[in-house]
Description:
- By secondary structure, the chain is mainly alpha-helical.
- It has helices at residues 2-8, 14-39, 47-69, 75-79, 112-135.
- Helix 2 packs antiparallel against helix 3, helix 2 packs across helix 5 (112-135) and helix 3 (47-69) runs antiparallel to helix 5 (112-135).
- The longest helix has 26 residues, at 14-39.
Amino acid sequence: MRKWLREHVGSHLIRPIIYKTLSYLPTALVLAILWKRFIDRAGVFPMSYAYTVIGVVFLASAWFSYLRLDGVNLSLMKLLPIGTPRKRSSGPSSSMVDHIDVEIVSFAELSEEERATCRLLASVICSIIFFVFSVL
């Protein structure tokens, strides 16, 4: 596993992995709150069930990303707009990134293999976090 990580994850991928993880976490936390509000209205299931289900969904997402790394492309995934880059506005914009000497690589500029690697590792990190939440 360490050999695979050294070969596929460079220092330029750390930022996109963190950004992906930080974008997945609030969405999943909102889904857990919606679970508590709408699915478990009677209070039968504890919140750990919601966290476990979300952790399993993240593991399934990691598995699909792993399949994509192996070269398996699912035609159903092409129909869903998940992971497609959004169109940016053409208006003038300025950010602090323009003033830093470090080369910042956005997620859209990565190759398809690097994107799948970022999704894989972000999903694994989120699943670990939610499994820890379910145990606590």
